[in-house]
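The protein record minuted underneath.
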Amino acid sequence: MEGVSEWQLNQVMVGRIMNRAPRSVVAQGLLLHFLHGGLAGIVFVLLLPSIQNVPVIVAGVGFGFVLWIVALLIMKPLTGVGFRHQSLSPLPLIVSFGGHILYGLLLALAVIHI
């Protein structure tokens, strides 16, 4: 099931750019996924001064949630696979949600310790 999770979404994007099957660009898709995460981290740091009244941990978790929503919104147009039709179970959606929340939490903790 291509496009089920964000790293597979990146595989689909790389596959389309390179005109190759998504399964043949796994490493490139993961690299793009990590690049997106790094860029998102920079955006988070740049946005922090504008949300001074919110604790950094709360802002990080909220940022992770927003990224999850964005991923869901762009998944169908880019891959043709909507999040409601990914699987017979809700597990990919739950794992994706948890991963984004964890990303936001870890990002906030990293910012606090810098």
